[in-house]
Design brief:
The complex is a heterodimer of chains A (450) and B (331). Chain A is mainly α. Chain A contains 14 helices and 8 strands. In chain A, a hairpin with a 3-residue loop joins strand 7 and strand 8. In chain A, helix 1 (2-43) packs antiparallel against helix 2, helix 1 runs parallel beside helix 13 (403-434) and helix 7 (212-248) runs antiparallel to helix 10 (317-347). A two-stranded antiparallel sheet of chain B has the order 1-2. Classes of the chains: A mainly alpha (450), B mainly alpha (331). Chains A and B meet through helix 2, helix 3, helix 13 and helix 14 of A and helix 2, helix 3, helix 4, helix 5 and helix 13 of B.
Chain lengths: 450, 331
């Protein structure tokens, strides 16, 4: 049981973390594709049109790999987490079914129209399809986050006499404030990533002195969006998420902050290494009393520490702590970098700010790390529960799938995802190499169009 | 109410087979009927805008099964762990092949993905058929409704026969699609493929129907609900239609659709009310009455899913209408 559970968890963690890289790309780039498309429709400026087509192709590669790596997630609920599924399917199945019916169809059908349909549909419908793809991508994200939020903070259910979880109110599940703040934070993270991607690719064009009108356009749009969403990531979405965790998941809060012992006037730790064995924070740099203030609005309020929970109710401290601090640290960095970029743009122009362009180009991977770290905080901090307070993770795994079976499939996934990752990089770098101005920019599209 | 959930689920799965069926079928036959690079490109392009949306029906049906009948979802997916993961990998390879093929203009790149696409499509059709065969035949389920058999149990002659029928029937469907939607020599070869494959399908379908009476007799359901006899009649009509409409590819495709729909409806009508019957007797299996989802789930989800599907059907039909104006030429 122990080995099987570990294998199930590793497989889920690996496949979901790899998968999530691509929805970040689609949810983050969809608004840019739609924005450039709408600008093109309004101004009849070919620059915007080519910009939209360029990002739509990057979006399409993200979408393809996202779909392909998304199917294993739905499968794994049944294959590796059968007991969880059988018990909670009445609730968890609903948003998943709705995602398929409402979001996937919309996104996939209208992406087809946007990429292949220019000759068949009116310009208005073509432009509208970019917006519908955006709506589809964001709805899809919502239904998935609604499932996760329900596992974090279950609402709208009743317990049957045999322990099965029954759906009481779908509206309560979908309208839960916990879910909405979590969703808005995740979306903010994705758009922030999109902003840094657009700015980073633009910076690459400006630095290499190719396709400079597009480079300038991308850096301008990218840093504007990145600046706005760096703020939104912290306030209100990050702040409200923190408040929800404080209220509903205090053990997670303690793990995130590396607070081992309940403290009046708890400090906010900036840097330090938590050691679960000795229950201390090694070499901390902290702001005194700040955690109490942030959590409860009072510098003296007590914050419960990890040690006050029974050992089998404690989340893993080190992973939760590091993931959370990486996310927050990077969040601050994004705000600083995007502010600097706006200042350089206004006062020097991008052409004279090559150092800044270098930073923007090299910053591209970091929003991905921040997004993943945020999810690790959320999901590892949820342990040992699969449904917070209702069902333990150990009780959710399939009892009839052996560790060795899962180890075999993990090996398969690792091999396949290594290939997918390489193909993704190859295709995206190739599209970037061709660029929005490129003569055979439309090879995939030309081939498909009659 | 629970019966409506069964029907919605069957309709969703059936729509998946009819729609993804033609692009799986294109995968099975395209190496044979499309020979040159431009013929291949046109063939792939004819399904390019659609295959992903088609496959979404599988995902949506999976979601609906999860929501309506969680225990069946849990039992089937964990009980058949490796087969399900293999199906998953094949679906993934197929998706990669279709999506990434067009990105680099290089003959070796094309060739690699064409063969990947063909192998994955053929194996998927086979595995889906074997799975359906096992569902009709029943599988040994333990007291807690989890599979208690071996891998070799699943590869019995009846199920493998259904698998072969699935490959042949989808090859026919895919060839009919190519004949209808692609111009030039590929379409001619596809028409010839339809003529070659349709008698094979007829023989296999007759044999499987005969065998089904020994594996799981449809008589009880047939006597209780005589109108379900329409389903096998429809599939016979479809098959005759395929043979009778050789010169009109559009009608051949419609007839092939009718044939597949009739076969699937027959299977569903035979199975009802079971979703996963036991073996050797159906009794130990999972039916729609074995621990169904809570009534509240059906009351909330059925209207939502049906409304959602109606919206999808509306815009899909609209878009398909726009795209159907043109054939895909081989340039």
């Amino acid at each position: 049981m122990g080995a099987a559970l570990t294998a199930d968890r590793i497989q889920f963690a690996f496949t979901i973390m790899f998968h999530y890289l691509f929805p970040i790309g689609t949810m983050g780039l969809a608004p840019f594709v739609a924005w450039y498309t709408l600008r093109a429709a309004r101004t009849h400026d070919a620059t915007y049109d080519r910009a939209a087509q360029f990002w739509a192709k990057i979006f399409a590669v993200n979408f393809a790999i996202g779909v392909v790596t998304g199917i294993p997630m739905e499968f794994q609920f049944g294959t590796n987490w059968a007991l969880f599924s059988a018990r909670s399917g009445a609730v968890v199945g609903q948003p998943l079914a709705m995602e398929g019916v409402f979001a996937f169809f919309l996104e996939s059908v209208f992406l087809g129209v946007f990429l292949y349909g220019r000759r068949y549909v009116s310009p208005t419908l073509h432009a509208a399809s970019a917006v519908l793809v955006w709506i589809g991508a964001w709805m899809s994200g919502f239904f998935i986050v609604a499932v996760d939020a329900w596992m974090q903070h279950p609402v709208g259910y009743t317990l049957a006499s045999d322990g099965r979880i029954q759906l009481e109110s779908l509206a309560a599940v979908l309208l839960s404030p916990f879910a909405w703040w979590q969703y808005l934070h995740a979306i903010t993270g994705a758009v922030l990533t999109g902003g840094f991607l657009v700015a980073g690719i633009g910076a690459y064009y400006l630095l290499s002195r190719r396709q400079e009108p597009y480079g300038r356009l991308f850096v301008q749009t990218g840093v504007s969006v990145a600046f706005a969403f760096s703020i939104l990531a912290i306030f209100p979405t990050g702040d409200r998420n923190g408040a929800n965790v404080t209220e509903y998941q205090p053990a997670k809060l303690a793990a995130m902050e590396g607070l081992f012992h309940s403290t009046y006037g708890a400090p906010l730790d900036i840097i330090g290494m938590p050691d679960s064995k000795t229950q201390t924070l090694i070499d901390p740099i902290a702001v005194p009393d700040m955690l109490s203030f942030l959590a409860y609005g009072n510098f003296n309020t007590a914050v419960k520490g990890i040690a006050s929970y029974a050992p089998n109710d404690r989340p893993p401290v080190a992973v939760t702590y590091y993931a959370y601090h990486i996310m927050v640290g990077l969040g601050m960095l994004f705000l600083g970098l995007s502010t600097l970029a706006i200042v350089c743009w206004r006062f020097r122009g991008f052409d004279r700010s090559r150092g800044l362009l270098w930073m923007l180009m090299l910053a591209m991977p970091f929003p991905y790390i921040a997004n993943e770290a945020g999810w690790v905080t959320s999901e590892v901090g949820r342990q040992p529960w699969i449904i917070y307070g209702l069902m333990r993770t150990a009780a959710g795994a399939s009892s009839n799938v052996a560790a060795t079976e899962t180890i075999f499939t993990i090996a398969g996934f690792v091999g396949m995802y290594a290939l997918l990752g390489l193909l993704f990089m190859l295709l995206v770098m190739r599209e970037v190499g061709i660029g929005p101005e490129g003569e055979n920019a439309g090879i995939a599209l030309a081939q498909a169009a009659p | 109410m629970i019966v409506v959930a069964f029907i919605v689920l069957v309709l969703m799965l059936g729509t998946y087979v009819l729609l993804d069926g033609y692009d799986l079928g294109v995968g099975i036959v395209h190496l044979f009927v499309a020979r040159t690079d431009s013929e291949r490109a046109a063939t792939i392009a004819s399904i390019g805008p659609f295959w992903n949306g088609n496959e979404v029906w599988l995902i949506a049906a999976g979601g609906a099964l999860f929501g309506f009948f969680p225990l069946v979802y849990a039992s089937a997916f964990s009980g058949f762990y490796l087969p399900f993961i293999v199906v998953l990998w094949l679906l993934m390879f197929r998706g990669i092949a279709l999506e990434l093929r067009g990105h680099i203009a290089n003959e070796l790149w094309y060739r690699f993905f064409d063969v990947t696409f063909a192998l994955a499509s053929g194996l998927l059709a086979l595995l889906f058929g074997v799975a359906l065969g096992n569902v009709v035949r029943g599988v040994p389920l333990g007291r807690s409704h989890y599979f208690e058999g071996t891998f070799t149990f699943l590869l019995n002659p009846y199920s493998v026969g259904v698998g072969l029928l699935a490959v042949a029937a989808l090859a026919l469907h895919g060839a009919a699609w190519i004949a209808m939607r692609v111009d030039g020599p590929a379409a001619e070869r596809a028409s010839r493929a339809v003529r070659i494959v349709s008698p094979i399908v007829a023989v296999l379908a007759a044999a499987i129907t005969y065998a089904t009476f020994h594996v799981r007799s449809p008589w009880p359901n047939l006597l209780a609900m005589p109108w379900i006899a329409l389903a096998p009649l429809a599939s016979c009509g479809g098959l005759f239609g395929v043979i009778a409409t050789r010169e009109q590819p559009g009608r051949t495709f419609a007839a092939s659709t009718l044939f597949l729909a009739g076969m699937l409806a027959s299977a569903a009508a035979t199975l009802f009310p079971y979703l996963l019957p036991g073996f050797p007797s159906a009794d130990g299996g999972l039916s729609i009455y074995t621990i169904p989802a809570s009534p509240n789930v059906l009351a909330t989800m059925l209207p939502v899913v049906i409304a959602g599907l109606a919206i999808v059907g509306g815009y899909r039909a609209f878009i398909a209408g726009r795209f159907a104006r043109g054939r895909f030429p081989t340039v």
